[in-house]
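Re: [ENG-882] Designed sequences occasionally contain unexpected residues at chain ends

Forwarding the minimal case from QA. Structure tokens:
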């Protein structure tokens, strides 16, 4: 039997010189992608079988869930309106655990994307929203309804990219308390206002939509030659009943 002197303990095979550890941290590896089936969740208010005049797809903001977000649209509820709130594909806990696993009831939110692997994440959610659109209009007669697409906060870029890249052809596009995707050119942006002027909604006390941000967005839309109108309301980074009701009022010339 091999005897090891306590004065000379064996060196672990896991021990690496400092230079090797540094090299390991700097290594880069090939990354590949695989399409996988995934369950997507969405919330619905109204009936697909009703005599509908309007269908709304409403995209929530960062850290929200579809069912809670959909409750913001109760002021617009009526029998001839159908609301669909798709939920982003990535969920996460909204608070860090203090010790051990998250306890039951810990708040959970969802996110449409991050800066990591962003092109594939955008492809994923556009494909998801197209599938949901096709599911709804396999039942609802598209020719008989006005189609609204609304994005709130992080959902603004999501909704805009879907209109630009996807199969949806909305009659009305509403971008609420968010910013346009940076990659839009004039040809792509024109799809946001094909049927009616793009609607921008912003609260006067929204910390995320400061006056200089709003002014920059308006200037960009003008540069892109996109027709738009702006609705402002007394409030912050939120959806209010008063502002919602103004959306459905006829536009003044």
């Amino acid at each position: 039997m091999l005897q090891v002197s306590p004065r000379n303990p064996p060196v672990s095979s896991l021990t690496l010189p400092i230079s090797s550890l540094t090299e390991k941290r700097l290594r880069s590896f090939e990354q590949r992608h695989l399409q996988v089936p995934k369950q997507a969740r969405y919330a619905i208010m109204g009936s697909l079988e009703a005599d509908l005049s309007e269908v709304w797809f409403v995209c929530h903001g960062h850290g929200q869930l579809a069912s809670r977000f959909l409750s913001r649209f109760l002021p617009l509820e009526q029998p001839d309106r159908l609301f669909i709130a798709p939920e982003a594909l990535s969920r996460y806990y909204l608070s860090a655990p203090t010790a051990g696993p998250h306890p039951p009831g810990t708040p959970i939110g969802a996110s449409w994307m991050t800066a990591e692997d962003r092109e594939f994440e955008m492809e994923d959610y556009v494909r998801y929203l197209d599938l949901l659109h096709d599911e709804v209009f396999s039942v609802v007669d598209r020719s008989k309804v006005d189609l609204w697409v609304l994005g709130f906060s992080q959902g603004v870029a999501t909704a805009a990219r879907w209109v630009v890249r996807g199969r949806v052809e909305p009659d009305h596009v509403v971008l609420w308390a968010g910013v346009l995707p940076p990659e839009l050119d004039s040809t792509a942006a024109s799809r946001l206002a094909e049927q009616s002027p793009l609607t921008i909604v912003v609260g006067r006390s929204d910390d995320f939509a400061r006056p200089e941000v709003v002014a920059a967005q308006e200037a960009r839309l003008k540069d892109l030659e996109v027709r738009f109108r702006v609705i402002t309301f007394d409030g912050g980074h939120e959806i209010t009943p008063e502002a919602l009701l103004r959306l459905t009022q006829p536009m003044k010339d």
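QA comment: On inspection the terminal residues look reasonable. The beta strands are 42-45, 54-59, 81-86, 90-93, 108-111, 146-152, 172-176, 198-203, 228-233. Proposing we downgrade this to a documentation issue.
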